[in-house]
Predict the structure.
Amino acid sequence: MQKKIAASVAASLTVSVLASIAAALLFWSCVTPTTPAIPRAPGADALADTPTTLTDPQLIKHGEYLAIAGDCIACHSTGHGQPFAGGLPMKIPSVGTIYSSNITPDPQTGIGDWTLEDFDRAVRQGISKDGHHLYPAMPYPSYAKISNDDVKALYAYFEHGVAPVLRAQQADTTPLKTRRLLTLWNGLFLDKTPYQTKTDQSVAWNRGAYLAQGLAHCGSCHTPRGLALQERALDESRKGFLSGSSVNGWDGYNITADLDSGIGRWTQAQLVQYLRSGSVPGLAQAAGTMGEAIQHSFSQMSAADIDAIATYIRTVPAVSDGSRQPRHSWGNPASDAARLRGIALNATTVTLDPARLYLGNCASCHQAQGQGTADGYYPSLLHNSTVGASKPDNLVQVILHGVHRVTPDNDAGMPAFAAVLSDAQIAALSNYITAQFGNPAVITSAEQVAKLRD
């Protein structure tokens, strides 16, 4: 039945409308048309707004932990603003900018006057208190997996454990008014069923599945999307789950069990180390949105939960993209420092010679041969999952915007070169790095750099 409805809808919509929907569905907006007949989530009757229990310190503390697991702060805060007060700009190319919402308990501009049921509808169904639909950039298709008890704990934390901030919703600049179409989108793609324990799997596996599919919403970045930007799979039972996607110029790599395209060669200990620290020397380092997830979320979660997530992810069925060797297997040490010693400079070699760009901008940390430092603080570019990837986007993003990843045990940093190197220079540098230390088939153009720079 659902396929017939989808086919009928697809036949009646023009390509331009679908493109507009696809662009809009990636982001929230502050347009608030009302939507009648708000549906209730399964189990909503079990959610009782009882202030005597919602103020329980243990419940609030548990809710705080769940908010960390859900990485709520990443989208609902800005670098210079108050936690959870919203205002994070999200740019939609060629359309405009929208801003995340204030989820502090301020009664005027936040969620201070929301009931538990209001909160539940927003978190698990994507419907705000006034009835308007949230765009699925708010990962409510994943949060639909959250249990009633955990929704209640989250509500207790945001109402009683977060400081209220008076900060009005900033108006977006996009002309799209597509929220009403989300009623149809939800009907086609939203599964409202909370996570169901699989009795043939271990306790740790089920805990990891609950977190990875739900609060941690791994699929939001790592699962490919369909025509209407729906995730093609929401768990391991459907093909393509966690097989790779691209979000806002960053690649969410294939993290299925495939030996060459995914992380099938990673050990349990390596995956746990990566999630806790963002760094596994000789294998991978986290940056961009994954770096933020590790800083704000994974590095602050319990050892048992991180181990459970790793246990589950390593069982997600393998999906191949045709790669013949894993991303981290590429690379040879460079010898250009010796080759170039004593050779006179000219205007071209100073500005565009790839080897000199590397030696002048990167070698002081990553070393002339590209092997990094012995302690792994400055990572090796050989045997590096980002450098050996089949697309250069993440490498270019790191060169442009740098890295700043703070965990309880480490503070990793790399300067941004967007202000000091041109698009042509960054393309030349990226091509040198991938040819020498990574996948030599990967080529970067100045035009690609310009798009990622924006």
Q: What stands out?
A: The longest helix spans residues 423-437. The CA atoms of residues 193 and 250 lie 30 Å apart. The chain is about 40% helix and 5% strand. Confidence is low (pLDDT under 50) at residues 1-45.
